[in-house]
Amino acid sequence: MPNHRTLRLALLGSISLFAAGGPAFAAQAAEETDEAAAETSAIVVTGSRIARTGIDAPTPTVSVGAEDIESGGVTNVVDLLNELPQISTGLSNANTSFSFGNVGLNQIDLRNLGVRRTLTLVDGRRRAGTPDDSNFLAFDLSNIPTALIQRVEVQTGGTSAVYGADAVAGVVNIILRDDFEGMEAFGQYGITGEGDYHTATYGVTVGANYDRGNAVLHVSRSENGLITRGERDQAFPFAFVSNPANTGPDDGIPARIPRDDLRFAYFGLPNLTSYLPFGPNGAWTDVIFDPALQTFRPLAAGPDGVIDGTYSAGEGGTQAADTRVAPLKRTNIYAKADYDLTNDLTFFTEAMFSDTKAVDRIGAVFDSWSTFVSIDNPFMPEAVRQGLIAAGEDSFGYAREHAEFGMRTSKIHRQYYSVSAGFEGTIADNWNWSVVGDYGQSSTSNRQLNDRIDERWFAASDAIRDPVTGQIVCRSAEARAAGCVPVNVFGQGTISPAAVDWISADHTSVTDTSQFLAQALVAGDLFELPAGAVKVSAGAEYRKESLDFKPSYVWEHATGFFASQFSPVDESNDVREAFAEVLVPVLRDQPFAHSLELEGAYRVSDYQRAGTVDSWKLAGSWAPVRDVRFRVTKAKAVRAPSLGELFDPGSRGATGLVDPCDPLALDAGSSSRRDNCLALGLDPVTFDPNTRRMTTLLFTTGNPNLDVEEGDTWTAGVVVAPRWIPGLSFSADWYRIKLDGGIARIGAQQTADNCVDLPSLDNQFCDFVTRGPGGDIIEVKDSYVNASSFEVEGIDFELAYRARLSDLFGGDGDLGSLSLRGLASYLKDNIFVDRDLVTGEETAFDDAGEADNPKFRAVLNATYLNGPFRLSWQSRYVDGTVTNNDLADPAEDVGEFYHIPSVWYHDMSIGYDGIENLSLYGGVNNLFDTGPRYHPFTYRGTSAYDDVVGRFFYVGAKLRFGRD
């Protein structure tokens, strides 16, 4: 009978569940595989709870190992995963600024289907989620210390039947180091070629094996500095603007042209700008207040004046001080222990804790024609008053950034912890079981600094001179009784500290989430067939999630800047599930059938709020000869709406929007746009929308009437590992995921666009767009809906080769070894389909090859090893894209800038492990300081594929004692 530890490792690898087993089992499986396969296969099992080697698995999987993390100088594993071709734009520290609370979050998006359709596991087990700013819960990968990761497996097929909801696009499984013995201290420091973005990570791991188990404790700290937009030449707008040379449709002249080094004509300046009769001979013109002259003068906006009602080529505001990459501090603690109670029974426990603090800053509160100054305001200079009187005006509106308040700042403090305990054991020789309970909780404190109480602001802006005292006071007696301090907006730095203190507010909102999980599993060999044992696994799971969002008084009652409103929510949801999986070996070592296996899985889930749903998987793999294996998977996936989608409490705010019926935008949409805008009564020549000058009210909300999503998944591929070329393996896998009833909140701009881009105006999106009597958009509702369908289709490729140089070139000495690995993905379709509610006609919007959905992405790694020396090179390629696939004539829109160029990055690293107990490494990321690409869609770092950090240098060291 095998010893207990061997059985325990086999169990835990089989179920991919517990921290103690996954990595060790992978190593054991590799030993059981022939040498060539062990050297060449980069495919590791994730999408199954039945034990088998990766090369035999029917579902394609990509693995990223600890050596990849170290050689890339990665302090946040998401930064490395986001470079994989299968992964799209999720949330990371590089793209979470300018949000209500996402800064510092790290969540993964597979297959362009969104974070919420990607399931993240730790050692095969779900963990509690951390909320984003829409209260959707997904696991934050930064809760796991990077130094403790042994590998990350990314499986991108339908695995809902195996792991449950949220696995529609696939699974990211983080495998932690296990059976650690001794002590390892580590430290890494990095800095950019610009001399900023200082990063540091350091920590220690200690572990011990004892007679009946193992215990590990890890503590680490990571910090990174701030990068502002000004430090990366992103302070100034680079945008498409109307082309003055354009004469109309079908003239061969682009309607829009790109212009860079612009300014904001009415935004970002700590001084008054307006549109007033202060031009030559009293002409109405764009003006700016001149403190020296104590009156308005024409704005020096450049030879073209104010462009499209927004931009200036001369005087204007910038976003130089705004955050591009947020400063962050994080502490991680992890501990685990297991103890063999008997030879067939083990008790284990695990705990993890993460504390993250991040700071996001954007410009100070401002006015954009939302406040008016009366002609009797005593702060108004006399020359301004007389000019207004001459024009017959008794007040005026203005734009001004109120820098006296300080930058609006979000201070995010997240704390996460989870504890788990369970038992695992063996029954007979080939049956293994486990039970586990896990409780996790996250708490997010979101403190908003330098907000503005609008009621007080408007009262303070309406000043008069007290006829008794002669002092300048607030007009409202009620406001005066409350301590109102009047404000003077004429000039820079003119709002007094006392007024700022009375008007401004700092306030804190808190979100608490939790998950309780109880799970029982059993796995083993059911009976023997001539081709091998029939393997099964089965289990049951109970899971309960809760969400408790407590907005600040300012947010709940919409008293702050722009009347941003968030309502409290306190809801929970639970699910009971049962699942089973079977693997049947049909043929082995037969003519034209080196092996043939079939596999099936089924899961039934009973959701508290979505009812009973089921999912299933059928798969097979066939190797006609030892060197070639074909694999196919057909699966049905389901995803019930999450708490955030059901109960997002609703928030009101403002957003910059382009009215699709703007004459400048009529040719930027579908062929239906012009006719639909005309049907709305909007003149295609003279309509002058307010979106050119001001932001639009936005109401985002959840939808308690959402239904479940259903996904249909196909994968089919081939794996080749020819014996006559030792060390070589190749795989190609086609995939298609079609999601019906997909839950989506597609954004204010897309909502407004879809309203007029669909064949008729009688569609669900027009119900979400409110226009005023003059046709201007007043408010857009951005609510979750069960959209008609999403569909993604493409092909993944992987090529790996490993060889000793002496075998290739001859010679008696050890010349070292070379490893090459290439990953590539071709995106054929990325389709959103909507159905016209009247005609039933379906309209497909295919984003493949558009903006952030490149059709081709690839990563190539090369590593040279010679004894203790390592040299690595990584190249990452992102294909060129276009601005909009739906344009009837791209040349009539933006001309040659319809095409967004490709980008190619290169990284290099070096390591030396030849000093006793000490390893040294270092490297350069973005070796040639590439990007961002010169295009309005990418230059300001708005694309996830454009590096905003620049050339980055890092060095690190590891000190080890007492390890085997």
* Relative helix content: 10-25%
Distance between the termini: 27 Å
Outline, from the CA principal axes? globular
Structural class based on helices, strands and sheet pairing: mainly beta
The biggest beta sheet is recorded as:
22 strands, antiparallel, barrel
Instruction: Give the averaged pLDDT, no decimals.
Output: 86
**Strand residue percentage:** over 45%
User: How many helices does DSSP assign?
Assistant: 15
Helix and strand topology:
Elements: H1 4-15, H2 22-32, H3 35-40, E1 61-65, H4 66-71, H5 77-81, E2 118-122, E3 125-126, E4 130-131, E5 137-138, E6 149-155, H6 160-163, E7 170-176, E8 182-192, E9 199-210, E10 213-224, E11 227-228, E12 239-242, E13 256-259, E14 263-264, E15 273-276, E16 285-290, E17 295-298, E18 311-312, E19 323-325, E20 328-342, E21 345-362, E22 366-374, H7 382-390, E23 395-401, E24 408-427, E25 431-452, H8 454-461, E26 463-465, E27 472-474, H9 477-481, H10 497-503, E28 504-529, E29 532-550, H11 553-556, E30 565-566, E31 569-590, E32 593-607, E33 611-625, E34 628-639, H12 643-647, E35 651-655, H13 673-679, E36 696-701, E37 709-720, E38 728-740, E39 743-744, H14 748-757, E40 769-771, E41 777-783, E42 785-786, E43 789-804, H15 805-809, E44 817-835, E45 842-846, E46 856-866, E47 869-878, E48 881-882, E49 899-900, E50 903-915, E51 918-925, E52 952-961
Parallel strand pairs: 2-7, 36-41
Antiparallel strand pairs: 1-6, 2-3, 4-5, 6-7, 8-9, 8-52, 9-10, 10-20, 11-19, 12-13, 14-18, 15-16, 16-17, 20-21, 21-24, 22-23, 24-25, 25-28, 26-27, 28-29, 29-31, 30-35, 31-32, 32-33, 33-34, 34-37, 35-36, 37-38, 38-43, 39-42, 40-41, 43-44, 44-45, 44-46, 46-47, 47-50, 48-49, 50-51, 51-52
Helix pairs in contact: 1-2
